[in-house]
Amino acid sequence: MFRNRIVNQVIRQYRGQKYVDYARVTIFSPYYAKIIKKPQSTIAAEESYVKKFMKTVGWMDKERTRLKLTGYFLYECVPEKVCYQEWFDILELPDTFASWFIITELHVWLILVRYMAEDVTVAGEKKKMVKGDGHFVRNCVIEALWADVANRIKLLEGANIVVARKQVTELSEQFQAALVGYDEGLEDDKVLASAVWRRFYSLSVDTKAEHVEKIVHFIRHQMSALDQIPSKDLKWQPQITWLSIHDH
């Protein structure tokens, strides 16, 4: 379904059948609802469909369209490839929509950091940020995130449209605050640990220090792995492998 939405929104030419396979919950609350175990993937279209579609319209079409598709595919690799259950179990997080969002948010931020680095230019000893392809892809990744979140909230049992919109607004505000907190910790592990503690555990005094440490180690190692992707490979469907939280 999600990949179908990508094609509908970006190319506006898809007319295939849609399927729903999102995680369902027992209570309408993005914060406390229990998720029934189902595949985390947001993919519903057949794998071969996108390939056939790209051959039809031409992958070498307009550059902005290609970049937008890249942004959507980048987001898709998060709910598709991240092992959420490992995060729930190892870090003792509740199996809820809120936990799913916080984990997804962190992985999305890692993608954004890597792509924004592409827009940094060096003039003498100063670094300057320019709005280029990295900034455009960043916005597309965020756009895809909210499209997916809106769909998932709609599938919560007993969902109310008005309440759902309010929840999305609240999540958006939390998302912006989380990005600022993580950004501030880019060069300082203590600041990063503080941001992780605040976002994942709401500064609870009962938080196990080793859990926060694991997340910080994961962030540093994952950022290093993303930095290894050559700039020329970032634009057109880069292959991202997410590290396991179990190994940190």
Description:
The protein has helices at 2-10, 47-57, 63-81, 84-90, 97-116, 133-154, 161-184, 189-201, 209-227, 231-234; strands spanning 120-123, 126-129. The chain has 248 residues and is mainly alpha-helical. Strands 1-2 form a two-stranded antiparallel ribbon. The radius of gyration is 18 Å and the shape is globular. The model is unreliable at 6-50 (pLDDT under 50).
Give the secondary structure arrangement, pairings included.
Layout: H1 2-10, H2 47-57, H3 63-81, H4 84-90, H5 97-116, E1 120-123, E2 126-129, H6 133-154, H7 161-184, H8 189-201, H9 209-227, H10 231-234
Antiparallel strand pairs: 1-2
Give a quick set of tags describing it.
248 residues, 10 helices
Which strand order does the major sheet show?
1-2
Termini separation comes to 33 Å
Which secondary-structure class do the elements indicate?
Answer: mainly alpha
Percent helix, as a range, is 55-70%
Element string (H = helix, E = strand): HHHHHEEHHHHH
| Biggest sheet architecture | 2 strands, antiparallel
Radius of gyration: 18 Å
Percentage of residues in strands: under 5%
Q: What are the segments in which pLDDT stays under 50 over at least 5 consecutive residues?
A: 6-50
Shape: globular
Mean model confidence by pLDDT: 76
Number of helices: 10
Strands, count: 2
Q: How would you summarize what this structure contains?
A:
By secondary structure, the chain is mostly helical.
